[in-house]
Design goal:
The structure is a homodimer. The first copy, chain A, is an alpha/beta fold. Chain A has seven helices and eight strands. In chain A, strands 1-2-4-3-5-6-7-8 form an eight-stranded mixed β-sheet, sandwiched between helices. In chain A, helix 4 (87-102) packs across helix 5 (119-129). The first copy, chain A, is globular, with a radius of gyration of 16 Å. At the A-B interface, helix 6, strand 8 and helix 7 of A face helix 6, strand 8 and helix 7 of B. Strand 8 (190-195) of chain A pairs antiparallel with strand 8 (190-195) of chain B, so a sheet runs across the interface.
Chain lengths: 239, 239
């Protein structure tokens, strides 16, 4: 497994992202991995590494700049206030990662996917709404709301899959319904998978550190199932 | 591929179901396949055959008795009026198939799953609500409503996956929401997958014969994706 730090400017920040890849004889599909609101933590790094072991070139993307990781969820979300209010900032950070990944000779630039967790899921969706030339997006416990014009979804080229906890208090049914309408109106190839007995951060084994088990909790079942569905979507998108 | 007709009584009817299996050295998991409202048609038969080729023993179950297949959807649904009103009749027909399948020496009776399409999906869910000892249920464009007490869901032992078209006029968002509540309250291991650009009967290549493309239409993408998710659920349920 190779690991390399990629530095680039995005949204006025100096980003330090981590590239994972194994050696292949031909360029491989590239996957952007956007972390939870905390920033580029162990969870996102481990998922990028896992993707690399599956044959992808994976870039675990910096979120806050300088690879800053914030421990407290409330504080992390506070740092993102400007981004929730202005998707163009979110898109700029996401696009920085896309450019850096596409520039790599190990990557088949015609076969790029993006995944993200929590705010990182929102980031992957905003990247798609920006019209970026990507083939697939998977958002895990991904915020589905946007203040961008709904019509931005018309620009989506990617297949979209969002994987949501059925009891996630941050992504209530009304937000899911709005997202469905947005995707439907734009004729996107979309899928929404809802997992029972599941709340926020269900893919993160360290979720308990948030000390809010009613709202933020790891679920081995939903993690395994959603990861598998992601692989399935990539298989068809990159075939 | 072996094919055998199994005859049994259920809900006062003489059922003629079709068993598909290949030869194995040990008993294999058994899958019940409940057809769309039309009855035991080519679609359900082909899915049972496909399951047998994957290593399962699959019983494509008769619905109306005497293997009757009705061509007109409206007429078929009319024949089911009594079942919509009384889930115990639906359960009786479903249980007849379960008993017949479990009695076969080719089947590992401790590893049974059920799938169904349209009303057959409802049937597989009612089988689960009856408390039957089955490991997994997958409903494809499956009616989610029931007039049984919501508390019947407490009896569910199976993992439950329902695969629904996002634009299915027969399974509107409110019905999905009720189903979520039912599953949530009963602490079922449930999943609800919603497919964009998809209406009813999306697994049936012959759906066009209903001549209602706005409401009843085959979708190769959603068919392939949901079938794969079913396989995934069986893999974990029978591991």
């Amino acid at each position: 497994m190779n690991r390399e730090t990629l530095s680039y400017q995005a949204d006025g920040l100096q980003m330090k992202s981590e590239l994972f890849f194994e050696l292949h004889s031909a360029p491989r599909p590239g996957i952007l991995v956007y972390p939870e609101a905390y920033g580029l933590n162990a969870h996102a790094l481990s998922r990028a590494q896992k993707l690399a072991s599956l044959g992808y070139v994976a870039l675990a993307c910096d979120l806050h700049g300088a690879a800053l990781v914030v421990e407290d969820l409330g504080e992390a979300i506070k740092m993102l206030t400007g981004l929730y209010a202005d998707p163009s900032k979110t898109r700029a950070r996401a696009l920085g990662g896309l450019r850096a990944l596409k520039a790599r000779s190990e990557v088949d630039a015609a076969r790029i996917g993006a995944i993200g967790f929590c705010f990182g899921g929102t980031m992957s969706l905003e990247l798609a709404r920006s019209g970026a030339d990507i083939k697939a997006v998977v958002g895990f416990h991904s915020g589905l709301a946007t203040v961008a014009p709904k019509s931005d979804a018309n620009a989506i080229k990617a297949r979209v899959l969002v994987c949501i906890g059925g009891d996630d208090p941050f992504i209530p049914p009304a937000q899911r319904a709005d997202f469905e309408s947005e995707m439907r109106d734009a004729r996107v190839d979309w899928q929404l998978y809802v997992y029972g007995k599941t709340v926020h951060s269900f893919t993160n084994p360290a979720a308990a550190s948030a000390r809010r088990p009613d709202a933020v909790r790891y679920s081995p079942d939903s993690d395994r199932r959603s990861w598998h569905s992601m692989q399935q979507l990539f298989d068809e998108a990159f075939a």
